[in-house]
């Protein structure tokens, strides 16, 4: 069993569907990594969903002017977790922000806890969550091969940026993380 709390970031249809403007081309690879992580974190997993706000405010107005397709209510199909995760998501946190580090997730991780991140998109919501959690004092591990970005270059650049925050944020692999937990 691995230590810490796993946050599975935004494994939603809007990021999985190749026809979506927000598709993560390697979504299936990230999903395979997430599935491999889940048994090690039984009972200590939070799935997140990115949702459009009912009324965007501030700079979000310009953002949604650029992405009008996303102005859908929370129950719209594009915001659903993909079928392979919907039935596994016992705890789901919805946010209208890229960063998922909020009081609910912080409480699940604990004040001196370890947050393990996987999901999409490495260069947006994973990065935003990692930075905020690290600022709050959580030890953050990002499982590189259980994440996917907007494209391969963006994924790699985001991992490189997060690695600059060592020891607050550490980029790891699925194999290394799971090996850490073995006796």
Notes on the protein architecture:
It is a single chain. With 183 residues, the chain is α/β, with parallel strands linked by helices. It contains 8 helices and 6 strands, in the order βααβααβαβαβαβα. It has a 6-stranded parallel sheet with strand order 3-2-1-4-5-6. The model has no long low-confidence stretch (mean pLDDT 95).
Summary, kept brief:
The protein is an alpha/beta fold.
Cα shape: globular
pLDDT below 50 for ≥5 consecutive residues: which ranges? none
Strand content: 15-25%
* Helix percent band: 25-40%
End-to-end distance, in Å? Answer: 10 Å
Structural class: alpha/beta
Overall mean pLDDT: 95
Offer a few descriptive terms:
alpha/beta, 183 residues, six-stranded parallel beta sheet, 8 helices
